[in-house]
């Protein structure tokens, strides 16, 4: 057992307390007042535990963003850790409680558990003087759960300065496996304009936007390919005004998932290149690729191998896995920066009422992150 792990196990109670303080500071993405209060709790925790440089990036529409930096670093490229402190939960939506060695509550698994273990990883490194040539930047944002519109540019700016990126997002449920692959995502809206007429008097003089939308959806769904990992979900559809009127307008919201950048380019072209099937209708596809995939590259697998070795020294096996969901790690991976995700603690229930983390795992996950930073900052 390493000195770092021993130290963190001995501080189990304080790690739990750090996490509890973050969870109790509820932070729904769209409630700036509450998210800013949580951000201040996070800031105070960093200043107390680590004591590095703190920068607040103020935002008007969402909670403020935080850039925490520790170490001077003689190397040009830094180690970047990215996370978010917003949650999907409205204030008071689910209770906070400890039960059977687990902490339940909003954001415990996604991803305040990851924030807490990262803070304590940095605390342990400071305690033992293990920061090396690379400075560590811990960038924490407040709008990941609503698409990162207000933080994407900041994340990508920091990623371009970085040698590698660690993402303490929720691990794979129950197993605690880290994520070496995430699918990419595209977000599209299909808009159809038709010609409204009376549905009984002369329907053939009109052009139904709904009929056109149905044909377009059938064509779009033909791009689904389970074997290639391509999925297209028609999430919402709307159109028309009443049953006796040929629809003059219809629209659909579309979610695209894919495995590779090459697929992204091909599918984006196929979706945007639309023409009508029905004379008298016009179709327009809006949107595009939102996040490229976090692909399982040699560099990513090199980081996983390091983590696997660290875990074995700590007495357990660390598995790897994949996710069909995207995170801000996709943004950094999309720039070609080696990124490994799912470094948060063991737990389950992201976005569900049973959201929780396993408390005894917290020091082990903090030690894993600390040792990974130590290896790569020499």
From TrEMBL:
Domain Peptidase M20 dimerisation: start-end pairs: 182-273
Pfam family, one: M20_dimer
Full protein name: M20 family metallopeptidase
Any one GO molecular function term: metal ion binding
CDD domains according to UniProt: M20_CPDG2 (cd03885)
InterPro entries per UniProt: Bact_exopeptidase_dim_dom (IPR036264), Pept_M20_glutamate_carboxypep (IPR017150), Peptidase_M20 (IPR002933), Peptidase_M20_dimer (IPR011650), Peptidase_M20A (IPR050072)
Active-site residues from the entry: 86, 144 (proton acceptor)
The entry's keywords: Hydrolase, Metal-binding
